[in-house]
Design brief:
By secondary structure, this protein is α+β, with helices and mostly antiparallel strands. Helices cover about 35% and strands about 30% of the residues. The protein contains 3 helices and 10 strands, in the order ββααββββββαββ. It has a 5-stranded antiparallel beta sheet. About 20% of the residues are buried.
């Protein structure tokens, strides 16, 4: 059916209008194949959100694993030094045989007559066996532990260790802090030398 007027208009069927509208709006009709731009953009946005969530979860897991590894390594470093020092300091022969007792060094003669010197030189704890008089000297001895950021030999009341207070307290508090990466681990132990 045609309308007559000064201008000629043709009547467009409903199906043709829907077809034209879907072309303009980037929507596809039932008989068209393929993907529209809007569907592609929505899919990309959703995939991006899913990828962000998965990446965040993986990143958190990896960081947690790294923190755990650093703490374990720091703990291992501090534990090795702590156990060795505690074991050997217990075997101090007598108070007279303590050559040096400071916050960063302890030099003594053990029950077997061997001179032992434990000394902190940033970032290492060194152990010198034998040698002449105490102290053994900078750089001397084997590295007992590394990556140590703090080392203190103290009296039980918290003051720095010295030979005069050692005679009355008869205990040594050893504090070792080991740092790996950004993780710090601190160990503390008290030692009672047997013959003091």
């Amino acid at each position: 059916m045609k309308i007559k007027n000064s201008r000629q208009y043709s009547v467009i069927s409903k199906q043709e209008r829907i077809k034209n509208l879907s072309t303009v709006c980037c929507l596809r009709s039932a008989n068209q194949k393929g993907v529209t731009l809007i569907e592609l953009v929505i899919t990309m946005v959703l995939m991006g959100i899913v990828a962000l969530v998965v990446a965040n979860a993986l990143s958190t897991g990896i960081m947690g694993n790294l923190v755990t590894d650093n703490r374990k390594e720091g703990l291992d470093q501090a534990r090795v030094a702590m156990e060795r020092m505690a074991k050997e300091i217990r075997n101090t022969r007598s108070l007279i045989d303590v050559g040096t007792a400071t916050a960063s060094e302890f030099c003594f003669i053990n029950t077997e007559g061997t001179r032992i010197d434990f000394r902190y030189e940033t970032p290492n704890i060194r152990r010198l066996e034998g040698g002449g008089a105490c102290p053994g000297g900078a750089g001397a001895g084997d590295i007992l532990s590394t990556n140590i950021t703090d080392f203190k030999l103290k009296n039980p009341d918290g003051t720095d260790l010295d030979s005069t207070t050692l005679a009355t307290t008869k205990r040594i508090v050893i504090t070792i802090t080991s740092t790996m990466g950004t993780e710090a681990v601190q160990l503390q132990s008290e030692v009672w030398p047997r013959n003091l």
